[in-house]
Design a protein that fits this description.
The structure is a single chain. With 51 residues, the protein is an alpha+beta fold. It has one helix at 8-24, and strands at 3-5, 38-40. It has a two-stranded antiparallel sheet with strand order 1-2. The chain is rod-shaped and about 60 Å long. The chain starts with a strand and ends in an 11-residue tail after the last strand.
Length: 51
Amino acid sequence: MSVISYDPLELGRRAATLAMERIGDPSGFVRQITLPTWIIERGTGERPPFD
């Protein structure tokens, strides 16, 4: 099964930064961030089926 992956530490850092900005200015503009992602291609049925 293939998966989409990302850097969870960077996601946490950015989320904390956005939260602190929001606490500092609750009426500020909503911001959206984009983090790099990558696909990890894996084969289907990597485990043998149960008998």
